[in-house]
Structures are given as C-alpha cells and as structure tokens.
Design goal:
The complex is a heterodimer of chains A (511) and B (190). Chain A has 511 residues and is mostly beta strands. Chain A has one helix and 35 strands. The chains are: A mainly beta (511), B mainly beta (190).
Chain lengths: 511, 190
Amino acid sequence: MRSLVAPLLAWLCVPACGSRSPLDPGTEQPPPIECELDTECGGDACSKGRCQDGFCEFTPVACDDRDSCTEDACNPSSGCVHRPLTVDNDGDGHAAPLPGYAPGEPGACGDDCDDTAAAARPGGTELCDGRDNDCNGVVDDGAVYRSSKTAPVRVSSANAERAGHGGLIGLESGFALTLRERNPNVATEWETFLKGIDEDGALRFDSRVSMPNVPIDFGPLAWSGRELVTVWEDDRTSGGYEIWFARFTPDGAKLGPDVRVTDSAHFSLNPSLLYNRNEFVMVWDDRRDELRGMEGSRLYGQRISPEGDAIGGNVLLTPDEQGVEYPSLAIGAHRIGAVYTQFVAPAGSTLRFRSYDAELRPIAASESFGSDVVDPSVDALETGFAVLWENYTDGPGNVLWGAVFDEQANTVVAPVALASGASRLGSHSAISLGDRLLVVWSDDSSGNYDLYWQTFDSRLEPIGERAAITANPSETIRPSLAVSASGSVGVSYEDFADGSKQVYFTRLLCE
Amino acid sequence: MSGQVRSGAWACTLLTFAVLAFGCGGQSAREEDDGTGGRSLRGGSGGFGWAGGGLGGRASDATGGRLSSDFVDPGCPEPPAPERVLECDPLGDGTDCPLGFGCYPFVTHPPGDGCEPRIIGAVCRSAGSGTQGSVCGSGTDGCAPGYMCVVGLQPGRRCAKICTDFDDTEACGGGLICGETDVEGYGVCG
C-alpha cells in the first residue's frame, strides 16, 4: 500500500486541477490539449485520458491494492505494480519479516524465522540441523550434545609460524572461519584467510581476505543465506585503524573489493557483526570524537544491504557515553541487543546493555553492571538477551558471569556465575538454541587451560554437568562456536600443542 | 549461527597506545608534555614523524563519517619489511636509557594512501610506574619500564608486561600468556 504513484499524480494533476498559488513555484504546466473525442487524448496504463468540455483530462490509475505488505507503483506501459516489501530469499515459500517485527506477527509481512535456510519455515519438521525448522523459537528441540571422539584437526596452515582466529560460522556444508597466520616469508609477515572446512575439519577452500600486500586483522563472520561477510580493522591507510568489510560466496570466492566503513580520526576497533534477517549490521568502538575533546571511544554502527551497499552513514550509537568499547550484537524478536564495556578511570570497567530498533535508533538501556569486566557477549534467547562476561584485574579472573535482559533492557535474570572454581578463567563463546544457551569457555581447573562446555536454560540454569572438550597438557584458549546444517556444533580454538599457537577445530555432536 | 572469538585476556593483536598517540598527530599537549613511559612518542623520539603531521583536521561530524567508496589499491609496490629503529632494548637492564627513563616499543602506521612502511622500534621515554592492568594514557602515570601501554587487553588503556617469546606459555607466569601486539616482535602478557 506504500504508494510510489503520488508524486507522479501530483504532476499529472496540475493542468486539470485549476489554479495554483502565485507563491507556488510548482512545475511548468503543459499546455491544455484540445479534443473532441476521448480517443484523441490517449494516455497510458497509469493515466487514462478522456475528452471533457473540449479538453483532455487525465485520470490517474489508482494502484492501491490495500495490501500493507506491498509497495504500489505504476508502470506507464504495464500498469500497476505491487512489489512485496519482503521477499523469500531461501525459496521455501515464506518471506522474512520486516525489520523490527517478529516472524508472523501482524504487520510483519513475513513469517519465516530463518530466511537463510529453506529447511526452516513455519510448519517445518524439526531436525537436528542447527535450525529452527518449525519456527517455534527453538533450535533442534530437545537435542543433546556429546563431544566428538575424533582428534581435533589443525586448521591453520602447516607453514604458519603462529596463528589466531576470528569468527566461525556454520554453512549449509561445513563451516567457515577467519584466521590470521604469521608467515615470515611474506613482507607483511601476517596473512589473513577465510577458510572453509567440512564437518570433520578438512579444508574445503582457502581464500585471502584482503590483498596480499595489505596486512589486516581478522574479524567476525555473518551469513545471509547467500553471502558471507566479514568485517575487520586494519591500518593500511591514513595512519590509523579503520573498519573494513568484504563479501564472499559460500565457496570462498571474494565478491568485489574491500569496502571501507569508517574514515575517521583516531582508531576504530573491535567490530561486531550480525545479519538481522534483512541486512547486515556492524558496530564498533570509535575514537573519532577524541579530537573534539571527548575522552575515550564511543560506539558507531553501519547498516549494509545484502548486496553490500551502505544503508545510510555511520550512526553514533552511544551519544551520551564515553569510554565504551568491545560491542557485541544479537538480533531478538523485535530489537537488536548490544552489550559493551564502559570504562571510567579510576573506577574501572562495567557493562551496559542497550536495545536498538532496526534503524539503529536507541530503544532502552540498562544500568551499568559488573566490575572489572572483559569479554562481553550477547545472544538472543526466548526470554531475552543473554549477556555473558568475565573479569580481569592483573590477569584473567575465575568466574564466567551471565545475565538476561528483555528488549526494554529490564533485568530478567540478575547476574549469576555460570562457571567458577578454577584459578583462572578466560575467553568464552556461546550460541543460542532459543530455549537453551550452549557455552564453551577456557579455564585452568585441570592445571592448565582447557576447554569446557555446558548448556543452560533460558534463565541460565545449568542443564546437566559441564564437560571437557579438550584435555591436553598444552594451553587451550579462545574458543568460538557455530552450528552447521548437520546439527553439530563446531568449536574452533587456539592451542599450543604443536609448540606454537595454532588454530584447531573439533565439534560437539547432536543427538 | 556463528560465534565470534571475544577479545579480552587473549586478544590476538593488542595495539599500542603509543601508536594511538603518535599516529594521530594532533594529540593534546598534555600527553606530549607529560611524556611518561609508554605513552606519546611525539616530540623527543626524533625522526619518526611524517610530513603532514598525521590526521589533524579529519574529524567527521557527529553523525559519523561517510561509508567510503570501495578501497582503491594505490598501486603500492610490495611493501618492504617494517623499518626498525631500536634505540634501546625494552627487556634490557635499562642501562641503555638515561636515568629516570625506560625503553618502550612503538609503531607508526602508514600515513596517507598507505604505501609507506611501518616503522617499528623502541625508544627511551620518561619512566612511569604502572604495572600489569594499571590504567595508562592521558592524564595518568605511564607504565613502568618493562611494561607498555596497550588497548585491547581490558577496557581502556592498560599497562601490560612486555614479552617476546610467543611460544612459551610459561614465560609470563600467573596464568598469563604472551600475545602479539602491533609492534611486531613485541608482545604483552595477557
């Protein structure tokens, strides 16, 4: 019902609608057309002409189909066009909802809870595939997980002197992850790759994220159902760090050049990324305002269409705060949830949760919480947004914390310890299954850092016992999780088992 | 569904605050004049600047900058290895710097279109007293010799112990692990 025809009508109406105000600059009026018969007036599919009192009058065609989920327009040759506001990207007969709407709710214009996969749609049959197949808000209903008995696979290249990893994401076939490898034989000394691996961790593709002569950092990944996007920071130009992104096919082919997101003074760092069912959203901490007397960083965001085009410009997300960093994003039923650190010297660092609408306008904010916080993450559960974080003073603390906030930033679950008992606990990753949160973290309860996992319900109550993913004498840190179409949970991480820090992959199996 | 490796304790690449100060040209006089350890390297570090003085005057409006057009490769030749300017040894006994000074790593980032090499090294600066996790940066005491001021370890700018053996997970002790910074060759315990 959104009409594109109105401006056209205004112009067409001018000659037939009488006088205009002398102050109305208007548009130049075409001269009246004299006629005797309707056939002399012509017209087109959008404007029917008829002869009235010796002059042609043109009556616009009303294209309103009274459907609020279409955009109405008129094509002069073919007539009314009613373009759906939402599309069915995955071909399952169901479109994604409009931004800011939950699937299927009034005004949503779409009821597909996951338009990146045809296997997930209203009425679908639940499978163990990492999808909410029946759109009931739960991924792999009732599934339980167990550690794979197979040995972890090294993902970083055999010639990598050292390596680290950024994001991990599940695809229709296997996983993709970003890695940064040190190679003393190249001038830039570090190279960043997007690697595709199958369910067992075997390499499927290996693509450079950027040009060979540009040393870049690695970053998170998002998947639209058609394209992969990764976003990162690098210092290739302008004397500081800026935010960039690039798009790839699911087979790792790069789509176009790197695109620069920021062009600002000082550093822009720590980008976070999500696909919000309709477009990509990236948020980062940005120090551009420091030159104007603002102390510390603030959060900025950018919306990107699925085709990689900017939607508007950089948006300041925390206008009333300074010293905010490390944003993490999640998409809930209606809102985007963001958690980030706040730093005020000498008090230290706390956390804050904020919700935003689809256009990145702020909706609500929590009070500050936590102390000496690091490493915040957020995931959307059926009860709200689950926020997890760790502590750090002179080193990693020994507790993994969690809390839940609703879309109005009200506390649903107050901060609670999810894991404790070790001397040191650092780095975690979590994925939401809708009604459960699967969490992996690294702690030294075995005497050195190993990975452990546990599932929590939507109120962060533990389900079952924690279990080890790794048990080796080397230090194992920085896990990242993703679910593939097989339903298995991929776990990438860094480990010193080969004598230097390298990236490995294993998985939890869905039953 | 996807996961993202969080930063924090073991962020893969930490950034020196020295870089932040030096690379951005228009830092406050307070930082430049203060000159405590591991902080601004402008003035006195000698010969590390570049024509044009950094990024002054490039601040964008309050609603943010534009989304830039696609990056156009400026056609730089294959960049040479970073230039290294080692005035002193950050992990040495301190005798290579004057009394009251410490040796701190630094990096400058390629200005302009990025065809220039990075400059990496270590210089003598007034010593601060901050140790692991201490706040550093503008208006604070700087880092003690053996520590450097970084972003990426914890919120804000923090001192962290300098390390160089990235493969020895026992080198830092106390559950800390040596991780890379953007000063190639120098890491910090985190």
